[in-house]
Amino acid sequence: MLDDGEREKRGAIIESCLEMNRLGINQGTSGNISVRHGDGLLITPTSLPYDRLEPEDVVFLSPDGTPEGRHRPSSEWHFHLDIMRERPDVNAIVHAHPTYCTILAIMGLEIPPIHYMVAVAGGSNVRCAPYAIFGSKELSQNAVKALEGRQACLLEHHGAIAVGASLPKAMWLAVEVETLARQYHGCLPFGAPPLLSEEQIGAVIEKMAGYGHQG
Ligand code: 13P
Hints:
Layout: H1 4-22, E1 32-37, E2 40-43, E3 59-61, E4 67-68, H2 77-86, E5 92-96, H3 99-106, E6 128-129, H4 137-146, E7 152-155, E8 159-164, H5 167-187, H6 198-209
Parallel strand pairs: 6-7
Antiparallel strand pairs: 1-2, 1-5, 2-3, 3-4, 5-8, 7-8
Helix pairs in contact: 2-4, 3-5
The structure holds 1,3-dihydroxyacetonephosphate (13P).
1,3-dihydroxyacetonephosphate binds near residues 29, 44 and 74.
């Protein structure tokens, strides 16, 4: 039996899966989502249509990667587990195949500092992790590296990952990164876009720390 807290977390994962498809940042069951839970994590099952998911379908993964549940976990469980292990600041991970992020990732491009909002991903770029086959430990290692000091990365020939302290934050960032990718894609026909400097992005990061509702 699931307690109310765990049922709620599992429900939020399913709701977010449906939301990423509604928002147009994913299609079918290409994406997967996890949320930290106890010493492990809760993760979407592999290849099941989101609109048929029930809280009981979400899989628990222990820290050593042992699944508990009635389905197999997402094929991308390696990077979900490794990111949670390496990044104590991360409590939720959203992976999807957003069209514009994926176009850039196919071309092996990172998102450079074209717009000050690049800073919301933690620095002056959103890196693109080198290609490795889906579901592999190698892909996971590449993703963890691309996420160093960042909250998002692209995956070459694949898609994108956004992480956050909470699921709403990771979802929000996934949409922001897709927006940046779309803006960059829109600039490219004009030639190499002018970029903000490290210093300018640093100033944005500093200013953002004091932005919004305080306390
Ligand atoms: P899952 O259905 O196994 O989560 O895989 C989809 C995917 O995006 C693989 O990268």
